[in-house]
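[RESIDUES AND BACKBONE]
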Amino acid sequence: MSGLLTIFRNVIESELGNGSLELPVVADLGFSWRPDKQHFFPRGAEHSVYPDWMSTSDTVPLGAGRAELMREMTRIRAAVARADTLDDEARAELRAAVESLAGPYEEYFTRWFEEHDVDWVCAVNMTLSDAVPVTLGLHRAAARRWPPGVPGGVLFWDHDLFGTCAIFEDGARVYPASPNEFTPVPGTHPCHRWAVISPALAEEVAGYPTELEATTLPNVLPTLREREPGDRHAAFLAQHQLAPERPLLLVPVRVFQVKGVEIAVSMFAEMKRICTERGTPVPCLLVFGSLDEDPPYAREVVSAVRELKVEDDVVFLDGVPLSSHQDAAGRWRLDEIDLLGLCRDSGGAVLFTPNTSDVESVGLGPALAAIAEVPCAVTEYDCFEDIYGTRSSCVRVPDRTGIPAAADRLLDLMAKNRHGDFTVREALKRDKEHVLRSFDPNPWRKLLQEMANEVSGSGSDGKTDGRDIGASY
């Protein structure tokens, strides 16, 4: 699952039992409209299992087939990104194409809201222009559902925005550098609320063509379980033929072009070489993401694994579920929380190695390492120090030439952590304390209570309805 959806899970599960949510949370994960997720059309990977509190939609609002729909969505996304180069005729054609898809999605959302009696929608990363017809349809359906004076509405929750998400494909920017006439932004209706995950994004929003201000809501981190390997942990290690004494290295990212999994593989190969020379157990590298999400990039990563001769030491987890479970074949698929626990108990580490400096708006890898109290290696990216400060104990990887030194340093920290070195343990504890302060869940709790209070008493039973839309990114 994407980091956005795991954070959404953390938000919901931190609020269960507090009275602000009515279950199940109904969710459309966006697979019917995201052109870069066509391999998961329409509801995710075939083996996807969601928590009991979530009910997911597999509706496709248009009659077009997957390939035809994804081609049109891709064409529209590319045209929106280069809108400033279009002449009047091309702009009119683009506007007509957007409208032809916006209508069916408006009707779909309208019916969905009514069917589930939705009070609030959480629209995740839908300000970005991955599918502007869908965002436009959502705006219109929300205006119909919550006209002025009717409580409830849409919480636009953005983890990435135009200027700070500089993703390129085939040399062209996927998103425009700023909003344009084709990109709906929050604030066009009184039922809109807006939240972003960092001060930098809030600063970017201040320059957008809207009077609506965005609230900064830090991401909510998972709560790790106590040190108890448990039967499922032992079964997971056995099914992957992993000896209990092997340290586990986690790469908690999707296998997507900007995530730099190939750098993590290169660093791991260097760590394996050093361990072989030292005569110490070679770690195992666990990569969270699915190889089906971005097949061309996945082929590059798998090729690097083969060229560096680490095939026997790298496990692609094919997507990490929101909740641990056994699949149809009886094999354990562990969630992020269980994997972090295994990493902690094995004396492992986290590798977070984006290959592009200006895409991550937070970068959760170092935070996940901190709450597990394990070392982390991280490549340079723009917002790192804004989020984690200058005193983080993370091993910094300045560039590829710095991989050997970083690998050596990370292995030393891992060994010292396993052996209870006081200085290392204290540094990891300080990182955990800093991260827990920075990723404070209280702003989310306050907002959810405000939203619940706004709609309380609006229904016949006086209950609030916490059913949200989650658009996966």
Observations:
- The chain is about 40% helix and 10% strand.
- The longest helix spans residues 88-116.
- The longest strand covers residues 153-158.
- Confidence is low (pLDDT under 50) at residues 458-473.
